[in-house]
Amino acid sequence: MVGLRHEEKTEVLRGLIFKTRNELKSGWPEEIYHQALLCMLQDEAIPVISRPRRAFLHRGEEVHLFEPDLIVWDRIILELKALPYQKEFLGEQYAQAIHYLKFWQKDLALLVNFGPPKVKIQRVVWDEPPFELSEEYEEIKPHISEPDRVNLQRIRQCVIALARQYGFGYPETLYRKLVAVELAHRQIDCVSDVGVVPVWTGQGLPRHTTHHLQVADHYLVHIRSLSAQPTTHDFLATRTYLRCLGLKFGLIVNFGAKELQIHGISSE
Question: What is the dihedral of CA 205, 206, 207, 209, to 10 degrees?
Answer without folding.
Answer: -120
